[in-house]
Amino acid sequence: MKQFLSGLLLKDLLNLRPMTKTLVFMFLIFGIVFIPMGNTMTVYFLLMIFAALLPMTSLTMDDMAKWDRYALTLPVTRKDIVTSKYLMTIIFFCVAIVISGIIAGVSYYLTPETATPFWFIVLVGSLGLFYGSLLFPLLYKFGSEKARYMMFVLMAVIGILLVGWFALFGESLTGNLLIYILITAVGSVAAFIASYFVSVRLYEKKEF
């Protein structure tokens, strides 16, 4: 099973390589613009968006190419296919968090008075993971064409939640807010795990 999952992950990463190069270039441009201004929040937000969108794009590419019909003739299960998408999501989010942590550490070392607090990375990462948790089952249920508009609606909802957070609490971090952030993080992880089982069930029932 590990060998098959590795193959599925490699296939997705190779398919996403052109898009990944474009996103890396965009990120560098945004980084050059926003980081010197001290506005690293935007950079963190973009990293989490990229981490959430790349696995969705992979699923959409598979759907458009009707790859699933071919994949199901291989010695892999439907659960393996879904698992590879969720593992890829975890990998991208881990990379995004590591890069964000490095940027936060450097910013704090150079300009501690204007550095974005690390808890913001946790908050944005949690919301990004929650976004993926909602979108994956929709893609497996309705397909990429029908779920396309839902993708942007959900992204707008996540953006509104993030803006609402800062409208209510600002950038200060008190003991109570730390509890809320931890609850958000734990809730997002729980939603991601539940989303995985829902997606497996939907994909196992899907006809191609």
TrEMBL record:
Domain of life, per lineage: Archaea
Biological source species: Methanocorpusculum labreanum (strain ATCC 43576 / DSM 4855 / Z)
Pfam family, one: ABC2_membrane_5
Protein name: ABC-2 transporter permease
Residue spans crossing the bilayer: 20-37, 43-65, 86-110, 116-140, 152-171, 177-198
Keywords tagged on the record: Membrane, Transmembrane, Transmembrane helix
Keyword hit for Transmembrane: yes
UniProt entry tagged with the keyword Secreted: no
